[in-house]
UniProtKB/TrEMBL annotation:
Keywords: ATP-binding, Carbohydrate metabolism, Cytoplasm, Kinase, Magnesium, Metal-binding, Nucleotide-binding, Potassium, Transferase. Residues 5-283 form the Carbohydrate kinase PfkB domain. This is Ribokinase. It is found in: Cytoplasm. One of its GO terms (molecular function) is ribokinase activity. It comes from the Bacteria. The keyword Transferase applies. The keyword Cytoplasm applies. Its EC number is 2.7.1.15. K(+) binds at V245, R279, R282. Homodimer. Substrate binds at N12, L13, D14, G40, K41, G42, A43, N44, E141, D249. Belongs to the carbohydrate kinase pfkB family.
Length: 297
């Protein structure tokens, strides 16, 4: 089977406001600058995967507007196959409003737009794409029912399913968890998913619910891989943080790229940690994504 990655997920136009500190409740503040960048967890992960030498097929939807045209052309320029990105009339392309503080921390407000219209056309496109894929990347910025069906289709086809459970929701469906090979929450998301106060306890609970592998993304502390064989830590190299925007998406794109190249899960996780560390040491934008020349498995 041809080795490759398929990404089913969101495409957003990101409006990035650089601020001295994150806004507090009731506060009005001036931004230092405004940037317009391509985004959405699905698109970000596809772009990261492409930058690392594994151009994926992107499945999703945008509106018939300038933002949608911008998203499609930007991904195409990066080598991503956008033939399965549907253009919808009368619906806005998804958008994200991102505040980035001077210390690199950020908050994000999403408008789903066309991302919330995904359905049977995208599942049909996925059925075709799975014939040439060995990794499927999913996130939670599209309708949950689509993720459930997509994971089941991929599992039946013998394709590895990676789910980035963000934005986190409580009590993911059991049938979705049972079809996921690798779940990649950060510590806060793991706690939200399970109600456990301790992130490692949350990860073990997710394993008990049927997930084969849980990778806890821990920011500057790297990552922790948990499965039936035990737990393994992966340390992140020390870097100067410029922006944390897109770090988790780079992690997932790198993980998928390494697995699609035939790497074992532990080696792929180490590669993803290094790629995400490089990402936070650079400004936002696809032009600053780590490449294979930066981080070789």
């Amino acid at each position: 089977m041809s080795r490759g990655v398929t990404v089913l997920g969101s495409l957003n136009l990101d409006l990035i406001l650089n601020v001295l500190h994150l806004p507090r409740a009731g506060e009005t503040m001036h931004s230092l600058s405004l940037e317009r960048q391509p985004g959405g967890k699905g698109a970000n992960q596809a772009a990261a995967c492409a930058a690392l030498g594994r151009p994926p097929r992107m499945i999703g939807a945008v509106g018939a507007d300038d933002a949608g045209a911008f998203m499609r052309s930007t991904l195409l320029e990066r080598g991503v196959d956008v033939s399965a990105v549907r253009v919808l009339d009368g619906v806005a392309t998804g958008q994200a409003y991102i505040h980035v503080a001077a210390d690199g921390e950020n908050t994000i407000t999403l408008h789903g737009g066309a991302n919330q219209q995904l359905g049977e056309p995208e599942l049909n496109a996925l059925r075709v794409a799975l014939g040439g894929a060995n990794v499927l990347l999913l996130q939670l910025e599209i309708p949950l029912r689509v993720n459930v069906q997509a994971a089941e289709l991929a599992r039946a086809a013998g394709v590895t399913v990676i789910l980035d459970p963000a934005p986190a929701v409580e009590n993911l469906p059991a049938d979705l968890l049972a079809s996921v090979d690798i779940l990649t929450p950060n510590e806060h998301e793991a706690q939200t998913l399970t109600g456990e106060a301790d992130a490692q306890a949350a990860a073990r609970k997710l394993l008990a619910l049927g997930v084969q592998n849980v990778i806890l993304k821990r920011g500057s502390r790297g990552a922790l891989l948990l499965n039936a064989q035990g737990a393994k830590e992966f340390q992140a190299p020390a870097v100067k943080v410029i922006s944390t925007v897109g770090a988790g998406d780079t992690f997932n794109g790198a993980l998928a790229a390494a697995l699609a190249s035939g790497e074992a899960l532990a080696r792929a996780t180490d590669f993803a940690v290094k790629a995400a560390s490089l990402r936070v040491s650079r400004p936002p934008g696809y032009g600053h994504l780590p490449t294979g020349a930066d981080t070789l498995p």
